[in-house]
Queue: 4 jobs
Job 1
Amino acid sequence: MSAGTGGGSGGVGVGVDVAEEFRRLYGYAPEGVWAAPGRVNLIGEYTDFNDGFVMPLALPHTAVAAVARRTDGRLRVHSADTGQGVVQLDADALEPLADTGWAAYPAGVLWALREAGHAVAGADVHLASTVPTGAGLSSSAALEVVTALALNDLYGLGLDAARLAVLGQRAENAFVGVPCGVMDQMASACCTEGHALYLDTRDLSTRQVPFDLGARGLRLLVVDTRVKHALGDGAYAERRAGCEAGARALGVRTLREVDHVQLPDALARLNDETVRRYVRHVVSENRRVERTIALLDGGDVRAVGPVLTEGHASLRDDLRVSCPELDLVVTAATDAGALGARMTGGGFGGSAIVLVEAADEDTVTKAVAEAFAAAGHTAPRVFAAVPSAGARRVG
């Protein structure tokens, strides 16, 4: 399935395509087809592994999986998006941090389920995804969650969406080796159409927040800079370690326990300038999520724009995870009249989001494209973020 097939919706047409390819690959029909979306994060970056607050929304772009059980302890996985053949693995021999490439994501889920004591013998899997890879839109979490949901349904495990998300995070942390928080998997598993997900990552409590921008004459644009990022390269892990060092120095379990009113005193107690910057970002970012939810609850959606731009400055200057292309999106968009903009996701490339009046969408999009052309950058990909459904069975 190409990135354009089915419009990224994970609907019936896409399910049929994936099921037909499964039959061609494996010689029999799958037992079902499942879909799990990528996500874009409205606000709350690098807070999830600090027990903080986040507010993602699911995209219409999905990873779709046709799956059937096996009884012989074998895992066979294939992706329509890699150009590689079927990867065959022994479920009993799966080892964390082994070099299995893209297959580590579905294999890690099987490993995490079995490690948690669930009787999952094996599976045949065919995957296809419309979630752009390397764009900061959680393509890996979509693969993990769709695999977890399919195995949960087929093996009758009875796990709820939050538990599936935690198992997906476990797969990425321990099996793949990326020390991510749980936001991406929770967004993919738990988001609902027309809403943003207000998530407290300390206890995984959630609230579905209505997010119908169209009714208010607004758009949330995603600008994929096409600068690929790889969170396994150490930069993400270094920031996580720095946040943990800050928490230890302040005598708290996580930075969630530092209230924004305590921030000046907390910063004065830190000697390491890098750690101080990381702490300032996390504590102020948690506060930005709280401010955003208050604005949305009060119906003042346009006032969220400046909060987004403020968040980008913190990610750029304190956390230092932006890049010239992301900074250019924010500058060009806000100069052209956008209400606000910021990078989203892990950074070092990937995507930015831009909140605009619907009437200004074309003007802002053109301004960003012209700024990229003038700077000699590859043209960005721009699309509207439509709050979509979380993981579900589609066939």
Job 2
Amino acid sequence: MSEIMAALQLAQHQADLINLYQADSEVVYTGYIDSLAPDGVVVNTYDDAGLQDGAVFMRYDVVDEVETMSEDLDNMAFRIANADQAGLSTVPQTSVQLDAKQSGLPQILAQARTTQQIILLVLADNENYLEGQVQGFTDDQVTFQIFDKFNYRNHDTETLDIAAISIIEFQGNELLLESAYVQTDYRHQDDIKATGKRAINDTLVHAQAHHQLVAVDSADGSGMFFVGFVNTLNADSLVINLVDMTGQFGGYTLCRRSLIESVSIQSDYLQTVRGFIELNQQYELNVQPVLNDERLFDGTTDLFESQIRQAGNFHNLLHLTTKNALLPTMTGYPGPINNGHFIFYNVEDDHQLNRVGTLVELDQVVELSFGYMDAYLLEKRLKDAGSL
């Protein structure tokens, strides 16, 4: 603990960008230390786009490692600087106002109760997390009303031991949107989901014609689902304008119909995302200025071949999935297509390009994602470094 404390104090003194790692979770928090309270550290955190994304309180005994130098932090510093230069914007956030000499957790709970903001709690004995609103608290316990964006029927009020709370996330983008959304008249809706080729086709055609938000579940066992609007349809595949977890444009996904297990047109989560989209319209935040949400595609062509050729010509990054179980999902750019094959030059974990590449069969490709924020940032960094 003394080593962790010393590392935190040094990072605060030097105003270092840090990663906070936990022993029993893969969740990593990146940001700058706001305060070192008697009971834990408060860090102003940043999202993957380099935008400030609220703050987190962590008890000291949860912190397993304080990282101040790494390739990942260099990458995040680049993203934070780029977000400022490129004029990226986020939901208006207030700065953290805590007295560092007093315990941080009760102050955060008190602020959340006063403002009725949604916060996220991680409990010491629970791998899951709870989102909701503080109804009241004592020195020992907190009364917490659950908000479950996936299932509105899960709205129980629970009494939790304060000693069991390890982490609190607060004032982040999604939490602020949820805080505004729960003030609206939202009600549970049963899921409406299409399965089977004919029903899926009819649902997609209707969704495209009426600009209807859908959730597409993949059939590859990955548990992956895409939320967005149908852009282009043909007999073999479809392009979706993705919507991310904060209701903003999240790029495009091109997937084969064979990858689709079901299409949902009604659910509590779709209601939540629609609410976020409407709130973002008020903030003029539906699409970040570096992304293009107005692309058109020719459904009379082989969409996979045309998109791969275009990405290869301009060295644009794609996220690629094949039905070959031996090939992992990869992000990179394709070489020319020859005899139904192409070389895919993927970006390694250290942000270096694999110059040898992987031979991929065009007909094996089942999903391409492109035009999203992470691809833009990775592409920009590689080009700035002269690697792309």
Job 3
Amino acid sequence: MIPELSPMCHDAAFLVVADGRAILHCNDARLTAAQARRARHLAGGALDLMALQTSGASWHPICYEYPPEEMARVSTAKRVSKLRAAQRLVRQTEPALAVPFAGPPCFLDAEVAHLNQVLDQAGGAFCDPEVSAAWLREHLPAQRWESFKPGDAIELDTGVITRDPVSARFSFADAARAPYLERYAADRAPLIEGVLAGFPDPGPDLYDRFTAHFEHLGGLSDYFLTQIDMLVRFDITGPNGGRWDVGFRADGLTVNPATPDARPHYRITTAGRWLDGVLTGRLAWEDLLISFRLSLYRDPDVYNDYLVGLLKHANAPALRAVEAYETGRDETERIIVDWDGRSYDIPRYCPHAGEDLSIGAVVRDGQVHCLAHNFAFDLATGACVNARAANLTSRLC
């Protein structure tokens, strides 16, 4: 197993070496370039197959309240960023065969069926494996790329692929998608209804339990409260809902009914039945996020990884591990990058999750863009411009 470097990210890749063959399956893990190269070294210097996720189950930007033109722009950037990350890792490892996999998500319940626009092959935020393989083949033509469907098989000794006859009739094409999803939804309707029935509307004590839940979270990590440092509004719809503000500050956490003069940085909207699932432990916050049964808005449009991390982990030892990782970073190894006639001294490793910026980043528009998680840092100030992260500590040479 090869876990991601930062404990904030709890995914892991698997390296399998058997019978003289080696497979690196990245799963959901976003490995650094150095990790991918080390995996190849551990495999004896060559990988027969490397599988990379090119379509994550991410609520951004699909669940965000963007105007249509902004949604299109952000979706394209998300799509290309993910594909470039896969391209970078494969360039570092040069497997005999590279296989993009996963996604895009599809939605069968009427409540979220409108989100199926993420499936559009030309402009959706997430790619299907065939589109991913075509893009990667174009941008890294010397590499062999293939995509697979259920039942397909490959013989690693020869490289011969046998296609499953049933899966071969399936198409990701836009024209074929709508009728397929309609049939799929009809087939699954009884199961979906059974799940939904397990999440009834909450009782009148919802706000009291919401308050107790966040007061508990607020006592787990002073470090996370300091890093979050903002007001988050929860707009809870349906019976016994309301608009409630949670303040995350260095001096503690507060929960209060929303007031007109308060300006939240994040707004999270969801139905009371789903919030109730979190409060009773039937759902984790991450389950709710990747269910897409909520909408989000942020002003300014800056991602706060610490807010998501606190909700996702909700566990004191896990949060302490993140704090130890981030406060114990060694920044003595530094590199020089050039932009617009000036040279800047920056840490070799990204302050967010440890990517090697000497091979895993690009410099454009006066910013260092880390390709692992798409965090961008201003070279002049070191500040992260699109997310809440530690300063890059860049210095003008």
Job 4
Amino acid sequence: MIYCGIDWAERTHDVALVDDTGQLLAKRHITDDAAGYKILLELLAEYGDTAENPIPVAIETSRGLLVAVLRTGTRKVFAINPMAAARYRDRHSVSRKKSDPGDALVLANILRTDMHAHRPLPDDSDLGRAITVLARAQQDSLWNRQQLANQLRSLLREYYPAALAAFVNWTNGLCRPEARELLKTAPTPARAARLTRTQIQAALKRAGRQRGIEAEAERLREVFRDEWAHQPPLVEDALGKQMLALLIQLDAACTAADQLAEAVEEAFPQHPDAEILLSFPGLGIQLAARVLAEVGDDRTRFADARGLKAYAGSSPITRASGKKSAITRRWVKNDRLNHAGYLWAFSSLRNSPGANAHYRRRREQGDWHAAAQRNLFNRMIGQLYHCLQHGQCFDESAAFPAGTEGAVQAA
């Protein structure tokens, strides 16, 4: 067999081909454009690459146009962790020398010696990969929005506590359109204290509020006109201008999050696995899309449920050496899936009596909140694997049998 390793970079890539004995057959330095991709494919074809028997490729990333070109057909592309590649480099030289052509050769030799120990990129459908892009982007937009909201809250605490008191009872607080519109109307507490009921009502209407406008305007007016500490006028005006600049970024982040959420709601229901995922308690469209984005729709990706649980970071890991043995949580995992699983387990407590009973039992046995939720997620993700493999929807009675739960509790 022939094995290919590619050390990728932003503008150019180094390619190396080796045979079964580790002999270097060819090496190339290609550009990151259509011409470079053509040279790479011609090089692979020169050494026996065909549609029926493609040459496997190892590369240190799973994204980009180069990976998309390589994944056409039945070719196996292995995304090697850069830290793993660095450890393999030490097998060939202890002098700690490093070069891009040398790294390409190391990647090719990783497949030659240990291809069985690495997993190729999953063969997900185009729709599944599109949902992955949208779900991850929507998750990133929410994290970015929250980060900006935290920065804005910290700034308002320095000179504008009245705004924080006015919005404290609103869900999502500073991210709400009403809060952002009021801050634009009155960027300083001095200007907020001069707002009339009519101005406040107009701001709430511009933000899209339709109910309880008069009562809410009266409450906000009282809060703004209450006694508050103030910065010097010049400093207060400067902080107001800083707040408006930050508010522009928060507006853009909120708009991006909403638009991406709509895109996910449009794409996810079209997937064949959507019905199964949405049948699980605690999974709505957005959260189910995140789970699908990380699990994928390639049924051969995980050999069994244990593999998926380890990938999600829900199953514990044992570290044993000599007489010492410790069971701890996993630190190397898919962080996105693990985060989605935490929200999933928390939400399922209200939507599934069996999940709630399982969580309560783990707490009674001494688990902390996070450990109990991780154990619940471990069970739910195993059930999801079973349902996806067999094309079944979630069944509360089968997932949490009353007899089994009672026997475990009695034990």
